[in-house]
Amino acid sequence: MGIVQWMNSIAEFGEWAAGRKPVTKKEDALRFGILGAANIAPVALIIPARSHADVIVVAVAARDRKKAETYAKRWGIPIVHDSYDALINDPSIDCIYNPLPNGLHYRYTLAALKAGKHVLLEKPSLSNAEEARSLFHHSVLSAPKAPVLLEASHYRFHPAWRLFRAQFNKEDAEDVESRAGLFAGAFDSSDIRWNYDLAGGATMDLGHYALSALRGAFGTEPTKVTSATARLRDPPYDRCDEAMTATYTFPNGGRGRMSADLGTRGGYWFPWLTSRWPSFRDCLASVTVRTQPQALGSENGLEKSEQKMVKFTNFMGPHGWHRIAVTTTTTLSDPTSGNPVKKTRSTEKKTAYTFPEVTASKGEEWWSTYRYMLEEFVNKVKGREGSGAWIDGEESIRQMEANDRTYEKAGMLVRPTCKELE
Ligand SMILES: NC(=O)C1=CN([C@@H]2O[C@H](COP(=O)(O)OP(=O)(O)OC[C@H]3O[C@@H](n4cnc5c(N)ncnc54)[C@H](OP(=O)(O)O)[C@@H]3O)[C@@H](O)[C@H]2O)C=CC1
Ligand SMILES: O=C1OC[C@@H](O)[C@H](O)[C@H]1O
């Protein structure tokens, strides 16, 4: 069983252990079809849909009908289509979930939008910025009653992300480090993540989260990619990065660093023996922000200033567990020499599992990032007020631009563009 299938089992076990039963569906519930018998679809859509009265997963298509039938039976999906195009053109379907390999996102999302379907599109939205500009600026999205298109960067929809962002002013961010990792062996050699033609690579995969969170912390785009170093897969997969580390500067003068590793190893005692062993140490994604010191006036003749460090641990999967640690360092300094006289440090730990301040779509403590995202997708399609969390097309384009610039700085090719680009 691969890591993504494990995510499904854990999510399903959680539902069972909590004794949750599917809710009754409304008459006008949105009917979803899934492109591909994808590993990620249960945790990202099928399980969250069970608790949403406005969502029914009605169809799946796979390249091999037998595979689709087995998947449909396992996950309780009534309709099986013979091809992705047949599913897209099924008039009984309102929404398409596209969890195909990244290199197929453009072709099938555009086909679905042209068929009038709303699309929930897996991250990274596309293979590169050229595709992103073409898709998100396509006339099909500006026509009256245009369908909804959303990049499924699920972590941005969870209340914990909003709480994290509220802990500092983005203009004050001085140093931000964002990291995500998975232990070596999590994906075998046949995995889509090692296929350049399907737009694979660590920067496209976990790098998507690390870079998106870094950009999200600064709330703006990097002015420059100052360094980028890739660790490539062994041939013949060496057009794909197994790991990427990159540094950036931002318009406020701040510095950012992202790292994404799909094959963490070592870090144990006896390195001569253990250096190739998979390592679980760096597998919890985190984003850490250090702010510029803020002057707070004077106290007893001394100058007072404050600096914050905000660390959000497990920002990718905060529904399982997370911690936002806010450490405030207060310094009293001699006004003449500028030397610190006294420093005090305090740490506050915070969490958020619902949006208490929101009237519509407040959420439930147990909702996953995917469930929160589904809520907002449905709200948008139905024209309802929601939590306010959203990822618009321009954001998705800027994310792909930052991705491309990272690959270029690392001396690598950007991922290939769909041949049918419009
Ligand atoms: N949001 C999240 O937490 C996660 C998101 N993802 C994203 O979801 C997408 C899919 O990831 P994941 O579910 O792990 O991937 P899978 O390996 O399960 O692949 C998804 C589907 O791609 C289809 N496919 C079509 N053409 C090919 C091809 N040439 N080679 C291989 N597969 C093909 C297969 O469909 P068929 O059934 O027709 O054979 C397969 O079911 C990616 O964009 C990934 O970045 C992945 C994991 C987590
Ligand atoms: O989006 C993702 O999240 C979880 C990871 O296991 C996976 O590689 C990635 O695609």
From TrEMBL:
Pfam families per the UniProt record, alphabetical: GFO_IDH_MocA, GFO_IDH_MocA_C3
Alphabetized UniProt keyword annotations: Oxidoreductase
Top-rank lineage group of the source organism: Eukaryota
Stored Gene3D superfamilies: Dihydrodipicolinate Reductase, domain 2, NAD(P)-binding Rossmann-like Domain
Domain GFO/IDH/MocA-like oxidoreductase, first and last residues per copy: 188-268
Annotated InterPro entries: Gfo/Idh/MocA-like_OxRdtase_N, Gfo/Idh/MocA_domain, GFO_IDH_MocA-like_dom, NAD(P)-bd_dom_sf
EC number from the UniProt entry: 1.1.1.179
Catalytic activity: D-xylose + NADP(+) = D-xylono-1,5-lactone + NADPH + H(+)
Name of the protein this chain belongs to: D-xylose 1-dehydrogenase (NADP(+), D-xylono-1,5-lactone-forming)
